[in-house]
């Protein structure tokens, strides 16, 4: 007979600890595989972007040998720089999205470690990464438990790497446009600097807002110092 909606469902049968551990491990390996495939795809995108950027420089060099540095060269340089910047920006967006997904995956694995500790609290001294699914636990896992500053970790990240490359291209594009418009040396330098620095600032603001947005509610927060 089907139970009425007001009736509580029967309690689940006791599941052996070994079966629970296997289920948790399956989910853990699934998250690891997802993380690996995500970054493999991102690195392929970055490789394609850098290849196109390098090929653009070769094309400009060959074009300059054939036609010199006149108006045609400026048009070609502006077009290629714009194309490289568009590709770089799209790649940058993918890197940011992958970083957000990666952080969510890390939080999921932290939550699974909390489940492992529920099965066997004695494992706590052997875990390098965190079993807490909050911001502090996320950074503890990223830093592998080392009490170091996050500055070097952020500065060396893939997102900052792509931001710097795209900023150089943006600055170059701005300088090329200023030169093609007949601006003097000072105007070319100023406009190129403004475009490059502006791109960096814009990407930092977008990245900060993206990562500041709460991903999910924390179920296993890091205990406070007084607890």
TrEMBL record:
The chain crosses the membrane at residues 46-66, 72-90, 154-178, 184-206. Keywords: Membrane, Transmembrane, Transmembrane helix. It comes from the Bacteria. This is Uncharacterized protein. It comes from Pedococcus dokdonensis.
């Amino acid at each position: 007979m089907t139970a009425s909606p007001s009736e509580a469902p029967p309690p689940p049968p006791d599941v052996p600890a070994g079966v629970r551990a296997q289920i948790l491990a399956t989910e853990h390996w699934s998250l690891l595989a997802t993380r690996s495939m995500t970054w493999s795809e991102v690195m392929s995108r970055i490789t394609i972007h850098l290849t196109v950027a390098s090929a653009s420089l070769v094309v400009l060099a060959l074009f300059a040998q054939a036609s010199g540095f006149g108006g045609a060269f400026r048009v070609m340089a502006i077009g290629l720089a714009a194309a490289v910047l568009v590709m770089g920006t799209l790649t940058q967006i993918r890197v940011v999205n992958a970083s957000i997904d990666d952080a969510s995956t890390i939080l999921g694995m932290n939550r699974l470690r909390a489940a492992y500790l529920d099965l066997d609290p004695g494992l706590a001294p052997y875990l390098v990464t965190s079993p807490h699914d909050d911001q502090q636990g996320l950074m503890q896992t990223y830093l592998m438990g080392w009490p170091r500053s996050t500055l070097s970790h952020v500065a060396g990240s893939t997102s900052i790497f792509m931001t710097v490359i795209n900023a150089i291209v943006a600055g170059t594009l701005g300088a090329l446009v200023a030169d093609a418009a007949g601006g003097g040396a000072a105007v070319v330098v100023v406009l190129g600097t403004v475009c490059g620095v502006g791109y960096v600032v814009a990407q930092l603001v977008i990245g900060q807002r993206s990562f500041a947005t709460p991903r999910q509610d924390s179920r296993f927060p890091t205990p406070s110092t007084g607890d």
